[in-house]
Amino acid sequence: MTAGQDTAEAAGAQAAEEGTAEARAREADPLLRRDLEAVLMVVDQPVPAFDLARGLGRTLDDVAGALEELSREYTDQGRGFDLRQVAEGWRIYTRPECAEVVERFLKEGQEVRLTQAALETLAVVAYRQPVSRGRVSAVRGVNCDGVMRTLVLRGLIEEAGQDPESGAHLYRTTSYFLERLGLLSLDDLPDLAPFLPDDIEGIDETGEHTT
């Protein structure tokens, strides 16, 4: 066997090995894309690619590549949402050209009734305001970030500064909330506070009980 043949066979073996590695990577990509989408659908703030890679147990290069691919795919397909990279990280957003439709549906579409989850969340805010999303979630026992955003978009609650200790955003009901309920002030709310957990003041912003 000549040196040239040895070199050709070595090059062929290397190419085959690289091809196999690429094939394995392609097979793994759908799972990575699926997992990224699942996580990004529930986060309430941009997440750095490094944190996503660490949480999913994947390399930073794999995650960064998948994020960019998903972002391009959503844009090419003309989806109603897109995946954007901002200063803090990556997050799924409603596409800007859909803003008017979303706002009309959530705020002006009064025929769309609030869900039970939204009503329960609104009640917690009304009776414990100003209150953070963390405390609302702790009272209800589920993550309420998405519901809180809906209530803000519908004009029923609004931001009311930050907690001086934790820095968490606080929320309160709006004048529109009183208008929809036909109330002059919060003092006119029915006495439902006793039905809320007594130990809510002992719950921190992460939903854990403090000692």
* Count of extended strands: 5
CATH architecture of the largest domain: Orthogonal Bundle
Strand content: 5-15%
How many helix segments? 8
| Secondary structural class | mainly alpha
CATH T-level fold name of the largest domain: Arc Repressor Mutant, subunit A
Rg, Cα atoms, Å: 25 Å
Q: Which regions are unreliable across 5 or more consecutive residues at pLDDT < 50?
A: 18-28, 198-211
Distance between the termini: 78 Å
User: Percent of residues in helical segments?
Assistant: 40-55%
Name given to the CATH homologous superfamily of the largest domain: Winged helix-like DNA-binding domain superfamily/Winged helix DNA-binding domain
In words, what does this structure look like?
With 211 residues, the chain is mostly helical. It has helices at 3-40, 49-56, 60-77, 99-108, 116-128, 133-140, 145-153, 175-181; strands spanning 81-85, 90-94, 131-132, 157-162, 169-173. Helix 1 crosses helix 3 (60-77) and helix 5 (116-128) packs across helix 6. Mean pLDDT is 78; it is low at 18-28 and 198-211.
